């Protein structure tokens, strides 16, 4: 009955077909992402992987703040403005704002790298942090450019850029430098990201120019969607995305003060594996986000709720087998990176439970962001961040890696449950799995 309904419903068929394409591309991208981590672990060791994790922390947080929430907002704006010229103006303004903000943040982190290394008591990370800082504007613009195609519902193109090439190119650069030119400096992993992302940026900008003529100046209609309004709309999304990012990386940040680089490398590998549970979740969210933005904008409540209900079922059914396999065989998957990584087995199980809770509660975050509830989501996230930090800091000394994992898991579970309960009580919208619908 469930399959019959899918084939008779064009909206659900579209979600399924696009999800399959996205999963294929995302699967390939994740494969290269894990290959990258495996190459570091096997050839450079857990310590250098830990240094890379710290550098990538600053790259990720810096780009998240530098985007000012526009990588999420641009999907909503483009999905609700089909006019070519309006879309062109949106893209140009977003790219300009993001470049300015991310460049300023990059300069702050670049010149503060020595101070950062001093507080971590790890002077060897200075150069890696500087390279990460240089990469921030590049990565920020890549995410904006990729999001454009998400907003136009060209999910295959979005996935090629955001899910595939973003992982492939750094792995290729690393392999060439290490195996062909015998480069083995501790900065090699983060430099590979700088070089790979630079190439990807060029490709995306050329594509945007061919599709939207972003480098051609046109007079008139420049007052459409003023920058002040854009920043006002995107600010709550910045706060929400930043808090989620901080929760995701707070564990590495805190561990940097209490454990050595090798332990950080083990922990960051467990985090990477745990995110596989949300693998299909993320792919489906990428497809449904512009749809629910469009349906909400058109007041099409029936398709709006039906899309959410169907997506929740799909997320659960696809994620459950992944969760079970990774949970039962956690040591095996960690041992692929080396015997020492098996020490992170309990960490991996804790993080897997948190990721699966994210799946069970459904697409809570995207619904809040696409329906004007960003401020409410922000309050839930702030509370969850406090839960995360309090438990992580309290437990890191006695439990080390496992303590921080517990804090991180509680933070993620907190905002997902609060968000799902709020939508049910205040908006009569059920986001979690329900096979009776």
Could you characterize what this model shows?
By secondary structure, this protein is an all-alpha fold. The chain has one domain. 83% of the residues lie in helices and 0% in strands. It has 18 helices and no strands. It is globular. It starts with a helix and ends in a 10-residue tail after the last helix. The mean pLDDT is 87.
Q: What overall form do the CA principal axes indicate?
A: globular
Beta-strand percent range: under 5%
- Count of DSSP E strands? 0
The helix fraction, in percent, is: over 70%
Describe the sheet with the most strands: none
Distance between the termini: 12 Å
- Rg value: 21 Å
In terms of topology, how is this protein built?
Elements: H1 2-8, H2 10-43, H3 46-66, H4 70-80, H5 84-111, H6 113-120, H7 126-151, H8 155-180, H9 188-212, H10 227-258, H11 261-274, H12 279-297, H13 301-328, H14 330-335, H15 345-360, H16 364-370, H17 374-399, H18 401-427
What attributes characterize this protein structure?
437 residues; mainly alpha; 18 helices; globular
In short:
The protein is mainly alpha-helical and 437 residues long.
């Amino acid at each position: 009955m469930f399959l019959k309904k899918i084939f008779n419903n064009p909206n659900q068929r579209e979600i399924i077909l696009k999800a399959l394409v996205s999963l294929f591309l995302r699967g390939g991208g994740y494969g290269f992402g894990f290959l990258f981590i495996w190459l570091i672990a096997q050839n450079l060791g857990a310590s250098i992987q830990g240094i890379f994790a710290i550098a990538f922390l600053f790259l990720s947080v810096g780009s998240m703040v530098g985007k000012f929430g526009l990588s999420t907002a641009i999907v909503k704006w483009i999905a609700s403005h089909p006019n070519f010229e309006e879309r062109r103006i949106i893209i140009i303004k977003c790219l300009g704002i993001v470049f300015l903000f991310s460049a300023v943040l990059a300069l702050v982190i670049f010149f503060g790298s020595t101070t950062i290394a001093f507080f971590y008591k790890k002077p060897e990370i200075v150069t890696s942090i500087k390279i990460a800082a240089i990469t921030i504007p590049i990565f920020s613009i890549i995410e904006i450019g990729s999001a454009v195609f998400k907003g136009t519902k060209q999910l295959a193109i979005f996935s090629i850029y955001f899910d595939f090439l973003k992982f492939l190119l750094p792995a290729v650069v690393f392999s060439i430098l290490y195996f062909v030119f015998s480069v083995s400096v501790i900065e090699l992993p983060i430099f590979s990201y700088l070089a790979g992302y630079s190439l990807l940026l060029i490709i995306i900008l050329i594509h945007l120019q061919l599709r939207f003529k972003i480098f051609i100046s046109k007079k008139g209609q420049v007052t459409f969607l003023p920058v002040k309004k854009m920043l006002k709309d995107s600010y709550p999304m910045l706060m929400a995305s930043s808090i989620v990012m901080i929760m995701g990386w707070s564990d590495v940040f805190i561990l940097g003060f209490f454990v050595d680089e090798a332990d950080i490398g083990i922990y960051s590998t467990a985090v990477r594996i745990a995110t596989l549970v949300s693998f299909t979740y993320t792919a489906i969210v990428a497809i449904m986000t512009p749809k629910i933005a469009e349906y909400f904008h058109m007041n099409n409540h029936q398709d709006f709720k039906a899309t959410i209900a169907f997506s929740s079922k799909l997320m659960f059914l696809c994620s459950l087998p992944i969760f079970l396999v990774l949970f039962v065989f956690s040591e095996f998957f960690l041992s692929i990176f080396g015997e020492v990584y098996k020490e992170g087995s309990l960490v991996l199980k804790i993080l897997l439970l948190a990721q699966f809770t994210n799946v069970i509660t459904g697409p809570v975050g995207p619904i809040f962001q696409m329906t004007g509830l960003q401020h409410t989501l922000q309050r839930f996230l702030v509370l969850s961040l406090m839960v995360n930090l309090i438990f992580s800091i309290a437990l890191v000394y006695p439990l080390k890696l496992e303590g921080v994992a517990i804090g991180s898991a509680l933070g993620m579970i907190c905002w997902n449950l609060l968000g799902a309960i709020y939508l049910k009580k205040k908006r009569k919208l059920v986001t979690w799995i329900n096979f009776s619908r």
